[in-house]
Amino acid sequence: MYSITSYLKKFRDCEEGTVAVELVLMVPILMWVFLSTFVYFDAFRVETNAARATITITEMLSREEASITQEYLDSVGAVLQTLTFADAQPDFRVTVYQYRQVDDTFRVVWSRHTGMGDVLDDNDLAQLHANNRLPLISATDHNVLVETQIEYSAPFSFNLSSFSASNLDDVTFTNSMIIRPRPGRLCFDPSPAPSDDICVAT
């Protein structure tokens, strides 16, 4: 016959059911780690594609020798969508500007956008210049500022109450790049009418 002390020792040393308890405790944590790793990897993939796509369309614009049209910019949007594998049409904005040495200001030559805020004006360029985001150029040259905006929807959403700050839901990846056109300037043709190309800041 076992004494009470023997039963207590037996209960203390019993390890039956330990694996099942550990499984119940660890599986949710392991699943969260696996899924969150997948989401963050996918987000970085989309961010990298967005940056590369911005570089590609910026290079494409810089090589144009003839005036570009709205139809051309629509095609740029289609290329951007293809390169980023985006479900929806990505937003982008193209701004051509030049530098006026007389009054030390940057002037917009032309600016067009597709769903990315408004077109830029001289005040916006002044703000960018104040933030050291515009490189200096000669008065005879143009610079092309290309900005892109890609929406990313995470395949999984994590709600960890007090850890909600680490959730990765919908994210917007924004990229910008400045380049000098190979021919020296990039004009915009707003209509089929002749001699209405926008080539110089007003």
In brief:
The chain is of the alpha+beta class. Helix content is 39%, strand content 20%.
Fold and architecture overview:
The structure is a single chain. This protein has 202 residues and is an alpha+beta fold. The chain has helices at 4-13, 18-62, 70-84, 122-130; strands at 91-100, 105-114, 143-153, 170-179. The chain has one domain (18-179). Strands 2-1-3-4 form a four-stranded antiparallel β-sheet, with helices on both faces. Helix 2 (18-62) runs antiparallel to helix 3 (70-84). It is elongated. 19% of the residues are buried.
Shape field: elongated
- Helix-residue proportion: 25-40%
Strand % is 15-25%
Number of DSSP strand runs: 4
Average pLDDT confidence is 84
- The whole-angstrom Rg is 28 Å
Structural class: alpha+beta
The largest beta-sheet arranges its strands as 2-1-3-4
The tally of helices reads: 4
Main beta sheet strand tally, sense and closure:
4 strands, antiparallel
Order of helices and strands: HHHEEHEE
Low-confidence stretches: 160-166
Number of domains: 1
Distance between the termini: 105 Å
